[in-house]
Design brief:
elongated, 23% strand, 17 helices, single chain, 713 residues, five-stranded antiparallel sheet
């Protein structure tokens, strides 16, 4: 149970330690990633600023070379002739240069009046003074200032970066506004691709819808990052972003775009890491700069290794602590057991240790208790302080001779205690060796056998007294058994005397009748033959009773234990009547002790009694059922017929001596009163009662060996 709690505690420790380390590593990982993102953001900001600066410089260069140096252009701009003619004249100036301008990502060159009306637009084939209100307002503002302005604009086909600058005459009076329209996706792509960046522009859906003609609106698609923004379909769109970014990341991007923040996000696509910087160009548009960042991937992989290593280290540390604690716990258990054993040995085992010279170096408390000395009285003293003078010197010489040969001595010794009383110990003495296997002394481990010796002495006296008492009891029991046999024999003789009276009386009457016939000379051969038969029957009955009497007191060991079922089966087999059905059932393995002949005669007596009743009552469908079963520790034999039962006034007398309903005695069964005596002799019982349409006899026999309870065999 303790070890299970220990495993549970250290499992929690492992989980806690691993969790802390993983959280710390994840925190450091996020810190490094944030630092990397800030570095990328700062780097992209510098690139973006440089990009704007370069764009402005290019625009200034074009303005200086193709506007300020062109006197013809300046004079045309100051003329107030027809607008169509002025458009054509400016078109002639730039018609040969437009292809050159496009190579430098210049999409359009436009001129506007200081009040916001178009003068020339290179994308138009003819003059058109249509201009949206917002752009017109912007132009009028630029005309009032000397500084140029760069704006992000949306047109029908794509986004653009527009460079606006007022054109002044020699008197520094604004005469027009010059505009260079740069193809922003192409320009950005060419500018950022060299630095490993990919650029994409996102425009607010509502702004785009109001600034772009519906016929060109199909060029824009809803952006998968934020459905409120759209992007133009072009060759230069961002190929890094995909449509299955995590929902948490998309939610974060939308939230920051809603707050109009410049921010940086990171994500992984197919085991590659990307960092995207979002820059707000104006209130309605964002530019995204995306870079594949191998360093980000290295940070992620490195910290994954750190996490696995931290879990492994945590497991090893916790495992070591667990093993140390487990071994320490087992050490404490073993130490506690050893202390308990040591205390038990000290308290109950007689132990003494001596050096090679026989002086005591250690004794247990049990040794002190049996010897009567205290420990400080024994330490340093020779071991023969407890030597009894009755033990011969030769005994100790043999002991030391064996110990000197590094053998173990075993035996019994008689010692003497401090008060001069003797006591006996049994044990062994063995050599003690140090770690270098050098003998340094002897140790004696003994058991006090004084009580055992005393008990042996007392036992010897008790054995003698017990032998005398047993002989006396055997004699007395034999007398009692003989007396009980005499009493039982008297009862049986009394029973048999009643049975003998009738045949003897019959013999006497027949002999008197024969004498009378002889005196009168009235007998013949036939009379003598009948007389001989009748006398033989009566003599046979007397002989049968005599044999039965002899078996009552016979002790034939070969027949003492027998099968009840087989004995009854043998008795039934000897019955001559086959017209009466006899059924036997029950446990065939039940055995009792006695003479099987007695049980057979009892069963035959009961069966023939039933036959007699069948005959007297003229019952043709007679049936007898006999069952043998165990009840508790006894055997119960149940013998039932369908002869109508015994009259109620006779059923309590059927086992009395002399009671019989038969007209003639038979040698085929025992009378019931003799059967009861035999059953009682077997420590059993017999009784009868009327059941259903007949009489049922119950015989209870014992299953234990009667001989076991006898003291005299």
């Amino acid at each position: 149970m303790k070890s299970n709690r220990l495993v549970f505690r250290y499992s929690l420790l492992f989980l806690f330690l691993s969790t802390v380390l993983i959280l710390a590593l994840l925190f450091n990982k996020n810190e490094e990633i944030e630092i990397l993102k800030n570095e990328v953001k700062e780097k992209n900001s510098k690139v973006f600023s440089l990009y704007k600066k370069e764009t402005l410089e290019i625009s200034e260069l074009f303005f200086f070379n193709y506007v300020l140096k062109n006197e013809r252009l300046l004079s045309i701009l100051q003329e107030q002739n027809k607008k169509e003619e002025r458009f054509k004249e400016i078109e002639k100036i730039y018609e040969d240069k437009l292809s050159f301008f496009r190579k430098h990502n210049i999409k359009e060159i436009n001129f506007y009046s200081i009040i916001g009306k178009p003068i020339y637009k290179s994308s138009f084939n003819s003059y058109d003074e249509n201009l949206n209100k917002e752009h017109k307002t912007l132009i009028t503002k630029v005309a009032k200032k000397f500084n140029p302005k760069v704006i992000f604009a949306i047109n029908d086909t794509s986004a653009s970066l527009n460079y606006l600058k007022p054109v002044f005459n020699k008197d520094l009076k604004a005469i027009a506004v010059f505009e260079i329209v740069m193809d922003l996706p192409r320009l950005s792509h060419n500018s950022f691709i060299e630095k490993g960046l990919n650029v994409e522009f996102m425009v607010d859906h509502s702004i785009l819808k109001s600034n772009v003609n519906q016929s060109y609106f199909k060029n824009y698609l809803t952006h998968h990052i934020n459905p409120n923004f759209m992007y133009v379909q072009s060759f230069y769109k961002n190929r890094f972003l995909i449509n299955n970014l995590p929902l948490e990341l998309l939610t974060e991007i939308k939230k920051k775009m809603k707050n109009k923040q410049n921010f940086v996000v990171d994500y992984r696509v197919k085991e590659k890491c990307f960092i995207t910087s979002f820059y707000e160009i104006n209130n309605s548009s964002y530019m995204m700069l995306t870079v594949e960042c191998e360093e980000y991937n290295q940070i992620v992989n490195r910290y994954n290794i750190y996490i696995y290593a931290s879990v492994l280290v945590s497991f090893i540390i916790v495992l070591l602590l667990f093993l140390i604690n487990l071994y320490y716990y087992k050490y404490k258990i073993i130490k506690s057991k050893l202390n308990n054993i040591s205390k038990s040995i000290d308290k109950y085992v007689i132990v003494a240790e001596t050096n090679l010279k026989g002086r005591i170096t250690y004794v247990s408390q049990a040794f002190c208790n049996v010897s009567g000395y205290k420990k400080d009285e024994l330490i340093g003293k020779p071991i023969n302080i407890v030597r009894h003078p009755d033990i011969s010197k030769k005994f100790y010489e043999n002991m030391w001779e064996k110990l000197s040969a590094n053998e173990v001595w075993e035996g019994e010794i008689k010692n003497i205690d401090k008060n001069g009383n003797s006591y006996w110990v049994r044990g062994n003495i063995l050599p003690i060796f140090d770690i270098n296997n050098k003998k340094i002394g002897y140790r004696s481990i003994r058991v006090n056998i004084s009580d055992e010796k005393q008990l042996l002495k007392v036992n010897s006296l008790l054995k003698r007294d017990l032998f005398l008492k047993l002989n006396e009891i055997k004699t007395r029991d034999k007398m009692k058994i003989d007396q009980s046999k005499i009493v039982l024999m008297g009862q049986i003789l009394d029973a048999f005397s009643n049975e003998w009276k009738k045949p003897i009386s019959n013999l006497s009457s027949k002999i008197l009748a024969f004498e009378n016939s002889v005196n009168k000379n009235t007998y013949d051969k036939n009379y003598l033959t009948n007389l001989s038969k009748e006398l033989s029957i009566e003599l046979k009955i007397l002989s049968m009773h005599l044999n039965e009497f002899k078996t009552l007191f016979s002790q034939n060991s070969n027949e003492d234990k027998y099968s009840v079922f087989n004995a009854i089966k043998t008795a039934i087999a000897s019955v001559p009547q086959k017209d009466i059905k006899i059924e036997l059932s029950g446990d065939e393995n039940l055995e009792t002790f006695g003479v099987s002949y007695d049980l057979r005669k009892i069963i035959l007596g009961i069966v023939y009694n039933s036959f007699e009743e069948f005959r007297k009552k003229r019952i043709t469908s007679g049936k007898i059922t006999i069952s043998v079963n165990r009840t508790n520790e006894n055997i119960l034999i149940k013998c039932k017929d369908n002869a109508g039962g015994i009259p109620q006034e006779f059923i309590s007398k059927i086992f009395e001596t002399g009671f019989s309903t038969k007209e003639n005695l038979s040698s085929r069964g025992l009378p019931l009163h003799i059967a009861k005596l035999i059953v009682k002799k077997l420590d059993g019982d017999i009784w009868a009662k009327n059941e259903d349409d007949g009489c049922c006899f119950y015989i209870k026999l014992i299953t234990r060996d009667r001989r076991e309870s006898k003291r005299v065999q």
